[in-house]
Amino acid sequence: MQNIKLDISRVYDFIGKEEIESLREETTLAQNTLYQGNGDGNDFLGWLQLPSAITDQQISEIEDAVSGLKEKTELLVVVGIGGSYLGARAVNDALANNFAHLKKDRKAPHMLFAGHNIGEDYMYEMLELLNDYNYSIVVISKSGTTTEPAIAFRILKDHLVEKVGKKEAGDRIIAVTDAGKGALRQLADEEGYWSFVIPDDVGGRFSVFTPVGLIPLAICGIDIRQLVKGAREMSQLCDPGMPFEENPAALYAATRNALYRSGKKIEILVNYHNKLHYVSEWWKQLYGESEGKEGKGIYPASVDNSTDLHSMGQYIQEGERILFETVLSVEQADNQLTVPKDEANLDQLNYLARKNIDHVNKMAELGTTLAHLDGGVPNIRISIPRLDAYYLGQLLYFFENACGVSGYMLGINPFNQPGVEAYKKNMFALLEKPGFEEETREIKSRL
Ligand code: PA5
Questions:
Q1: pLDDT tens digit string along 76-118?
Q2: What are residue 151's DSSP bridge partners?
Q3: What is the average pLDDT value for the chain, to the nearest integer?
Q4: According to the model, what pLDDT value does residue 380 have?
Q5: What is the pTM of this model?
Q6: Rounded to whole angstroms, how far apart are CA atoms 60 and 224?
Q7: How far is the CA of 211 from the centre of ligand 1 (A)?
Q8: Strand pairing partners for 323?
Q9: Which of 424, 432, 437, 444 is catalytic?
């Protein structure tokens, strides 16, 4: 088996090799803080050893538990927001067929998402669709009181009960929540839903290898065994016992911090594979919520190329020089398709005749990288041998591990998210939620 590979050689024209080398000790200190559990947020480190802690027996239990549901489900609605949905979406979208939802011979349930927005039209149109399908629900919320998924779940639960009756609805709902507390735990226990536990010491954005990610993915036919196996392999490569120059998480954390200190404030995660769009969304939450604190942090952005070369390409090439790129490059396409030869050649494409489309994509990637380097954008490259569950497991764990190290290098607590409460307080005040009377009076005086 190969591994995903990190290439930082294309940052050396911007920050010398020695600048990264000079962060070796600082990086090791951050790794020690993480692994010895003596830094801020150390009650949320359950994810660190999770891949090796998950046993084959536990995975078998998950697979057995969901097999019945899998058979009677055409659509699986995953209800959750932020860390309670992005991991499953990232993996599912990366591995599912692009047109799975339209395929007549679809074998596994198709995954839909609710509770990640407050769109009335979105919810209405989803209910219209669900009238015509056999569907099941996985509702995921650690607290059980997050407004967006709570609204969506109320609506979906009522719809399912009306459609299939209370007993069958109970059999088609799985709850993933806290072991002992919270509204969803209480409801799951009262209604007798199948339920799985989000460990106390794993925060939402680090939860993809817990039932939060594994349950919906297993129902939709993703090979969770390979996903965890990949993460396990990567956890060994990221271990502090690995030398700095061979440790991908340490090198990535050191490189992005060196770039940040040189004035590169924005990191763009770039893909050339549209199925990776939600891996970028997951990554943005992971790094944005972990690092954006105390007036510090690299701003995580993303583009899907070559699509976004026709929209964001201009800015990246010539806009303010505060950017660096991290490119996700998938080495091998799963399928083969070549450019056809055309006698008339009106579009003048015959020079590409019989060349693979992926070859054109790779040249777009290389050409863009070189142009951006010329334009002052340093480039980190992560190559992924193939887009499958094993390598995705490696990739996601690599990013998690590097995020913990990088956060400690920035001098913040990577595992809390105090800033996300500010909007909630205002929203509850504006909605006149009981208990927020004082905030309601105050906010109304500002309107
Ligand atoms: O990473 C996080 O902590 C957040 O994104 C949460 O996962 C998100 O707000 C959902 O919270 P909950 O699972 O309590 O509904």
A1: 999 999 999 999 999 999 999 999 888 888 889 999 999 999 9
A2: none
A3: 96
A4: 98
A5: 0.97
A6: 10
A7: 14
A8: 266
A9: 424
DSSP 8-class letter at 339: P
106 CB-contact burial (10 Å; exposed 0-12 / middle 13-18 / buried 19+): middle
10 neighbors 379 (Cβ within 8 angstroms): yes
> Is the model's pLDDT at 1 over the cut of 90?
no
Q: What percent of the chain has pLDDT over 90?
A: 97
Q: Is the CB of 207 under 6 A from ligand 1?
A: no
Q: Which two tokens stand for residue 391?
A: 């390598």
Q: How far apart are CA 189 and CA 208, in angstroms?
A: 24
Sign, CA torsion 380/385/388/392? negative
The predicted pLDDT at position 243 comes to 97
Quote the Cα angle for 432-435-438, to 5°. 70
Q: How far apart are CA 344 and CA 333, in angstroms?
A: 29
116-136 average pLDDT score: 98
Three-state DSSP at 319 gives coil
Ligand 1 closest atom vs CA 203: 3
State the Cα–Cα distance between residues 6 and 254, nearest whole angstrom: 12
Query: Averaged over 317-340, what is the pLDDT?
Result: 97
Find, among 303, 343, 397, 442, the residue nearest to 4 by Cα. Answer: 397
Q: Which domains are seen in the chain, by residue range?
A: 5-41+228-410 (3.40.50.10490), 50-226 (3.40.50.10490)
Nearest CA to ligand 1 atom 12: 141
Could you please report the per-residue DSSP string of 218-238? HHTT--HHHHHHHHHHHHHHT
Q: Can you say whether the dihedral through the CA atoms of 98, 100, 103, 107 is positive or negative?
A: positive
Q: Which atom of ligand 1 is nearest to the CA of 83?
A: 7
Residue 440, classed as helix, strand or coil, is helix
Letter for the amino acid at 155?
Answer: I
Q: Is 273 a catalytic residue?
A: no
150 alpha carbon, distance to own chain's centre: 21
Max distance between CA atoms of the chain, in angstroms, equals: 75
Distance 40 CA to ligand 1 centre (A): 19
pLDDT reported for residue 48: 97
Residue with the two structure tokens 């000079």: 22
Tell me the torsion sign for CA atoms 2, 338, 273, 327.
positive
The mean pLDDT value for 55-67 works out to: 93
* Phi, psi angles (nearest 5°) of residue 329: -115, 115
What would the pLDDT profile of 279-301 be if each residue is shown by its tens digit?
999 999 999 999 999 999 999 99
